[in-house]
Amino acid sequence: MSHHRHEDQQLRLSNAVLDPDSKVRRGPASAVLHRDLHNAPHHVLEASGLYLFLSNKRRIIDATGGAAVSCIGHGDERVRDAIAAQVTKLDYCHSLFFSSPSSEALSALLLASTDGAMAKAFIVNSGSEAMDGAAKLARQYFLELPVPQPQRFRFIARDGSYHGNTLGALSISGHKARRSIYEPMLASNVSHVSACNSYRGKLKDEDTEAFVARLAEELDREFQRVGPESVCAFVAEPVVGAAVKAVCDRYGALIILDEVMCGLGRTGAVHAWQQEDIVPDIQVIGKGLGGGYVPVAGFLAGHRVIDVLDAGTGKFTHGQTYQAHPMVCAGALEVQRIIQAEDLVANAARMGMVLEKQLKETFSTHPNVGNIRGRGLFWGLEFVANKTTKEPFPSDLTVAMSIHDEGINQDPGIMLYPGTGSADGWTGDHVIIAPPYNVSAKDIEMIVKATSKAVISVCDRVRGRVS
Length: 467
Known about the structure:
Layout lengths: L2 H12 L29 E5 L2 E4 L4 E4 L2 H4 L8 H13 L11 H12 L5 E7 L2 H18 L9 E5 L8 H6 L3 H4 L10 E4 L4 H4 L6 H19 L4 E6 L4 H10 L3 E6 L22 E4 L1 H4 L6 E6 H9 L14 H16 L2 H20 L5 E7 L2 E6 L15 H11 L3 E3 L1 E4 L8 E5 L7 H23 L4
Helix pairs in contact: 3-13, 4-13, 5-12, 9-10, 14-16, 15-16
């Protein structure tokens, strides 16, 4: 059988529908264990720039780059060529024994982007793996101190947070729905404090400064409750403030910032912590690192941590088979070089202001858009049944996923990233808008119009179903 005939046969198989008498919702048959067995995903055949091209001949605006991944858009030939060149020279070597020029160059570029604040880079293949590694490094740091502190094994994170899907990273996460069925398997050495969500967390007449101070006081109380000498690190996304860092410093704990989604240019700065009055001890990076061209993530470790290891065993007791993979590092390196050469972080900041303005002009008066929040090219719309009380829609209405589906199926089609649990961990709907850093003002106008069309259609449809 020829290669093309084999592909045709596979395509016909993948487009076959299930038994119409089955109770399972019909969709393409597939050998893949997809996330939803009852709803087959669309097939993407090609992607270029801001667009995905589906097998049904439709073109979709990728307004989120997947989950805030595609930071330079799809199909950049420079990245393709860099990956091909690396595979031609060196496909793989084991990081326990060897290094490669691409991993060394990528790590050097990342450290330089912190202006010397961070000391070493550790490259893996997903944000979940990176978070696991960061937690292990935090633990080892305390074992390597001149006077070791083996009693430190706890972590504190925020309610509603999501730091990854491996058991270790999910244990740190505070997202109730994601944790639910795995709860008996999750580690018990993690506790959670209130989310830094001003929309739902601020008290009446409380300003931002007072809100942040109250969160810092709550964190201090949690240190006291679990025993401050037992805490390795506080884990959070970068909007934490100097007051929170001061609490960690007071008790000798590390601070780990999770920039998997928001880092490497997404918020209009190379590192989101550079927009805050804070420098992390460990920073986790991911989606914007490889822009979707390669599966890559990692963490950056600060001098405080690395100096202790250097003076101690001189080893990090952790490693993975595909750690610092030469091809992966070559792809990520080219993505980062393109971002620098085309000044795309600055464009993300400029276009972020355009996106903010248009989102607020379009949705501020919408009766079911309760909150519009974000920074740079990282924005979210939270939907509510009652704008005055902030009451979320019932979860069985699946508002966020319905907006996603409507966006895909409308003309023009648009990809919006849906999420739930933003109210209490179970209820609360939102969508993320996170276009690539090279997006134009014209692109943003198109994205906002298409988003508005999907939101209006779904909200008009479900509004009458809420008592």
